[in-house]
Fold these 4 entries.
Entry 1:
Amino acid sequence: MLKIVDLSASINNKIILKNINLNINYNEVHVLMGPNGSGKSSLSSLIAGKKELYITKGKIVFEKQNITYLSPEEIAQRGIFLSFQDPIEIPGISLINFIKCSLNEIRKSKQLKAISSKDFRHKVETVSQLIGFNKAFLSRSINLGFSGGEKKRCEIFQMGMIEPKLALLDEIDSGLDLDALKIIAHGILKLKNKQSSILIITHYNRILQLIRPDQIHILYKGQIIKSGSKHLALQLEKYGYEGLNNS
């Protein structure tokens, strides 16, 4: 599904990512772990088409198509969804209208008709029940006055409505108490299917107790220094990033 080959990127002549190689197949959950400033969010932004960084070499391939230099809109239309660390507030635009507009833009790119009101309502009901989402949020302005946990739940709801092939969940677990984390993890697992995959970006291993990933990757100082099973997180707890890098 996703293949990143020898990807390096910089900003203001400072190297942020160096020789990144990553493969994600269909129906997999991968976790990218690393300390602050290691390049985790930069990598997810590049996959999603954001251009804050300058790509010095390498490529990003999605479903056998080179998407390295496509716009965020084009990449989203191909089925890649990016959640944000701290979703912004957008006054005056309701969540329900935003989602419907996004969904129809994706359908338009595939030369499909706009979703009918009946089908849209059914989809909203189905996804809401699946992940335990409070539909009262739908009429509110996007993220306006939401708590951190509420913002994260809205991100997962958007993911469920759009049904991306690849979901990039950037620190979806940050700032959540245990109960909220369980709800988010439950929603993620419910929405995953055989034709989709998920990359979770996090500092912590607590979400790994709720979501058993197929692969864990450790990003340190702009490089993936280790990849492995969930047991890699235990090594990380024991040795730390510096120790793991030297082991």
Note: The mean pLDDT is 89.
Entry 2:
Amino acid sequence: MLTSGYRAAVLGHPVDHSLSPVLHETAYRELGLADWSYERHDCEEDGLAPFLTGLDASWRGLSLTMPLKGVALTLAQEVSPTAIRARAANTLIRRVDGGWDADNTDVYGIVAALGPHLPATVERALILGGGATARSAMLALADLGVGQVHAAARRPDAAAAELGPLADDLGVSLTVGPLAQWRAQTAEVAVSTLPPAGGAAAADALGDGDGPAVLLDVVYANWPTPLAQSLMGRHRTVVDGLDMLVQQAARQVELMTGEAPSAMVIEAMSSAARTASGRS
């Protein structure tokens, strides 16, 4: 077990709302890592490089939120294949030589949160949205064995440009269409990467349609979202975005500390996050 004075933190702008300190500190406590601490630092893109330069050897890992997930790729000595494909890194891990390795645990979080709720085989999935988080959703769905994806976005052309090359790289068959017509698409599972306003528009567009059997909504604030609530009313399986957040944080803890959180530790992290966000 690791000992004596290791530090980690979450960086981003804004970052005051982040639940990462609650998640990581709970994991440290449950894992018996008494000498680990976790901080929160407001940092914009042009501040990341000098922040890294100023860190001493006690620093072992950083969680990154917007707007740092892109610039982190340019500051790392090595970048994981997942982060390269996602074009985003939400994690920096300290190297023995003092540099940093970049990784993306958002994809892992989606797989871990969504996977247990899926049928044995999923032929087709929906992604609502077409931006950076949709790339992580595409990677996760490919990891889960999905071969056909339809992306529904407010700007279909932009979504096709963002997701098309990645789909080709993954061997996934991709179609793209307008968000307003997403209810016409048949799929067993959907991942919504939409912000709250977009999710509300998707709920309106669903109308009286049945919707997919399983939905993961990556939004976790003000839960349930209008889209989640709409599908809950149809007795569909809805996966909370907080589950994804907890799972990606658990993976970060493992990468940073070398200790893999057990199911009991992950449950403690989830409970702490729900309490901190006023949901229990």
Note: The mean pLDDT is 95.
Entry 3:
Amino acid sequence: MASAQSAWVDPADVWIGLGSGYKCAVAATYLLPVTTALYLFPLVAFLIMLPAAFLSYRRRGRAGGWATVVLYTFVFYLLAIAMQTVIPLPSNAGYCTGHTYASTPQLRPFYFIEVIEQRARGRWSPGAILHNPAIWGTVLNIVMLSPLGLFLRYANKMRLVTTVLAGFGLSLLFELTQLTGLWFVYPCPYRLFSVDDLILNTAGVLVGWLIAGPLIKVLPALAPDGDRKRFAAKVTLTRRLLAFITDIFGFAILLAFLFGLLTLFGQDTDHQGVAILILAFVWFVLVPTMTGSTLGKRAMLLRVEKTSGRRAGPIALLIRNGVLLSPLWLTWLLLDLDRWDIGNHPEQLLLPVGLLLSGFVMLVWTPLAVLFDDERRAPYERFSRTINVAILPPGLKVSTKDKTELVPTHPKGE
């Protein structure tokens, strides 16, 4: 981990003055990585959203709540300390020719004590200690991995020895990243590998694990069993939306993979529309006819049933997904139309009219129905007489009260 001794820009030389006349020993070297992490976090959060929801529904029966706050906070923390390891980067390609101090690892254990004494110069008053940059560097190296120990005990119930070993392994990964010049991206290490950083970071993990003991008593419990009993049977708007997004992403990846292979092997892709229709039929109709779920719904533990309680057949699924996906396939047909000739082909007007109608159904009618209709059924569900039903984990017991409130009912006569 980067320290006051190991950073290629010494934070001891960068001070931020405060209006009160005091000086804060937080260097720009430490602030830049956090700022970078803030910029990168939305992208990282987007990339892990679906995998995190997939695991969350299996562990807790929901995606959201306090456990999700803890997860994304921890992800941002990991991103911030990772950026602390590699940023700031060398400013020019010739950096390695003029800087050699990091080329030899610092392998003397507890050398940081000697550095603190050298910087102190015999002055040990509270003010001198406060303004000693070596002390700040040491404290920051301990603090940086303390949240890791806290999280591993709080969220994963990890024991002390396992936590310390995990912290040591992460610190070693960071130090090797520095020793190899960002894994050989640079021809030389631009930060110093220090055995003291390993010692201090591991000590920080230990401190975090100890602090977690009393904090666990006041923080909300993360036990998944209670959440599963309470939320596993709920078919929420968020759950349905995540299943839909998973299906769209999965289908897009499948298409990209298929046409990438065809292009790679020099095959004709002129008739790609037929292949898209066949794959769409398999993904959105054939697979759920056989299994009850598309892959996206299976990931979020949902299945489609008829309102009578029977498994939905291909006709019902074709109507359901045809309406659900109508904005996409109508837009595709519009873009694929080579030439407009409404005079000779007035049927071409059906495409923009149909797109406007599908937009109204999916963007206006559907949200209003899902949010305010007594049965929470979207138009495409009413047209196809289908509903989403939660797939409950084996052996899960849901109270009678929860069942009547959470499990979709089958309207009489349908």
Note: The radius of gyration is 29 Å.
Entry 4:
Amino acid sequence: MKLVKAIGVAAGLMLSVGAMAQQVSNTTASNPSARPIPESDILFKKTVWRKIDLREKQNKPMFSENREITKVIINAVKSGELTAYKTDSVNTPLTREEFMANMTPKESTGALSEEEIAAGFGKQDKAAEDDAWGAALDEKPAANAAPVSNEYFPKQLYLLEMKENAVFDKKRSRMYHDIQTISIKVPATLNPLGFEQNVGSFKMSDLVKVFRSNPDMAIWYNAQNDAQHKNLADAFDLWLFSSYITKISNPGDRALADIYGGGKKGLLAAQDAAEALIEYEYSLWSY
């Protein structure tokens, strides 16, 4: 009887350990973080979205001339080194063609419609056809001519959106900013439709690999000391940038601007949200 009980207890322990190992394994594999925190160590978690305006003075080191963080990311996607995703849920990868389409301004091609052609627009008279200037304009480009690209320049894409998990790790007794994804946004001022457009979202774990493998380009520029430039991966670890909160996870999935209003009210709400996260950590140590 005792032997049967011992076997039952051992089997139960093996099943529970196996379930725990499976849980941690799945969490780590599916987590886009560069340093995933096991679910069993998490006492508190809130998902936070932040905007990073690379034009701000504190963010200029990430946006130095010819070493813009957007340029590093875009070049990595073009070379096949980095996978872009449709949204920050990072479930649906973008093809290179889809990514480049998002990099291209949505504007009219200037071609005439069938109705305009039928109405006579675009027709030239005989004199124009015989004109040497007209003939020059009608010439086809050479076969080896380089195609003209009208995609956005990396310098124009100055807006990033960062998704992070604000996590209190009970094993280490401290709060972590566990960055999940970085997204490149087309600013509303550049979009003819008047709203921000997502160019692509990227797993932080993938970005760290790209930054580490391109040390000469992926630089956080130290304006005070050329001998102390840092890698962009280290800059994110050390939080060497300025950002503001735009959304905290909530049942309605609503941004702070939708809840409290835009402009000054939205900025005050973002400041209050940042202070609330800090206050939560401090409150854990009060008795």
Note: The chain has one domain: 33-104+150-283.
